[in-house]
Amino acid sequence: MSDPRIAAIPDVHGHAKGEHKPYAEERPIAYSARMLFLWFYHACRRGAPRFLMVSDHTNYLTFEDPAAVNLVRRALKLAEAGDLYGAAETAGVDVAHAAVVSEGLRKGMRFSIGAEVDNDPRARPDAQNIVDAMRPDAIIRSVHFITIEHPEKGPDYQWAFDRPEFVELFDHVGTDRTWQLYVETLFDALDKLPANIVGHFYVPGTFGKWPAVATVEKYENQLLDLCLRRGLAVEINSRFLYRDNPEDQRKKYLDANRRLIRKAKSKGVPIAIGSDAHSPRDQGAGFAQILRLLDEAKVNEVIFPIAGRLARVALRATKEHLERRAAVSVAPLVGSSITGFGRAELAELETHGPRRGRGSRRTAVAARRTKARAPAKRGAKKTARKTKPPRKAQKVRSKAAPRRGTALRRPAKKAARKTSRPGPHAKKPARKAGAKKKAAIKKAVRRPAKATRPVKRHAATKKTAKKKTGRRR
């Protein structure tokens, strides 16, 4: 990689579920934490692209995808924290894979998980619910089907116009009509459905079917106005550049993207770059040619989605960027205490005061707490007493009138009672004889009688008892 900026270009469009199969053989494929983690592992091993997002098609969605996405996000957090065994166990990969990803994350690489939501009729009816459960960092809105009247199957036929199995329908529908239906379908979806990025706008020209340049420019202006109104970014897709395509078609594609980048910059529409990779070896492919287009238009910032926010990435550090970064620079938080600072830092806060930036409120609170908890010196009170000004001569008051700030004295009876109470070691006065008997009776009533075992009588005693009863009769 000759230019280091190529590695810094974010790749927002990639498919971890693999390359396209023939149209009739495509089936839903479930995500797994291992699949996603290894997709990011290949980028970390290569060191590029530094910012990468996975965004698979909706026709591949399954119920298992949200759980796998949440699991791999947890594994990435563990890897960033340095817990290699935890990351490997969570994602189901080897510790060596976790070590490579951990090193990449610590060097500043960032990964996101989104979805490419299109109008595929094969997708599940609840596909949007599954996408929402994934909590995607961004949604790429695209169109791969348009409704036409098929010569054999009749009206309302969903035509996959970008698939090689259905290229012959271009002769039936026509190039201009195909682009018109495509643009109408795309603009309607962008107006009504959730989206963050407009994906591969020039996809109808995949097989070299381009209308007049004036028509394409009209569609470009309408697209950028819609993106500006909705706060969307437009994607510059590089898949056509690294695939096996004729040179004249590649030149047309480059000219269209050059024009779109220039217009997007003039209107203030954010620009996203995507490789549309279906294999790890295609991550960031074709970005060298895209970088030339960006340099020609003098574009230095592209976007990378993070949690639904289109973050800006600067390809070259300018004076403006350095000043902006210096204004919001934050000192690193060191320590493991509850406040986030160590003992040495807390002692430093007492002497130098709280730091500026994020966490300054916490540092101020921590400094107050340490000052409140610190014991006061013995000599402090004495010096304070010495420095007090002398009091003015007070008027002589009568003994009966109490002073201000002092409590009134209690009556003499209570004071006498207090003085008459015996101390803890004093002998108790002797009780009367009647009181002793009452106390003994109360104890006897409270204590239950002990249960005695029944005594077995011998045979002799029983005989004697019978004799006595007989004599009485």
List keywords for this structure.
disordered C terminus; 6-stranded parallel β-sheet; TIM Barrel; 2 domains; 473 residues; alpha/beta; 19 helices; 10 strands
Description:
With 473 residues, the chain is an alpha/beta fold. The strands form 3 sheets. The protein has a 6-stranded parallel sheet with strand order 1-2-3-6-7-8. Helix 2 packs across helix 3, helix 4 (84-91) crosses helix 5 and helix 9 (213-230) packs across helix 11. Strand 2 (110-117), helix 6 and strand 3 form a beta-alpha-beta unit. It has 2 domains: 5-327, Alpha-Beta Barrel (TIM Barrel); 330-369, no CATH class. The protein has 19 helices and 10 strands.
Strand order in the largest sheet: 1-2-3-6-7-8
Q: What is the average per-residue confidence, as pLDDT, rounded to a whole number?
A: 81
* Percentage of residues in DSSP E strands: 5-15%
Identify the overall geometry.
Answer: globular
Structural classification: alpha/beta
Oligomer designation: single chain
What is the CATH level 1 assignment of the largest domain?
Alpha Beta
What is the number of E strands? Answer: 10
Low-confidence stretches: 333-341, 354-359, 380-384, 395-401, 459-463, 465-473
The topology string of helices and strands comes to HHEHHHEHEEEHHEHEHHEHEEHHHHHHH
Count of DSSP-assigned helices: 19
Task: State the share of residues found in helices, binned by percent.
Answer: 40-55%
**How far apart lie the N and C ends?**
131 Å
CATH architectural label of the largest domain: Alpha-Beta Barrel
CATH topology (level 3) name of the largest domain: TIM Barrel
Q: What would you report as the Rg, rounded to the nearest angstrom?
A: 43 Å
CATH superfamily of the largest domain: Metal-dependent hydrolases
Total of domains? 2
Biggest β-sheet, characterized? 6 strands, parallel
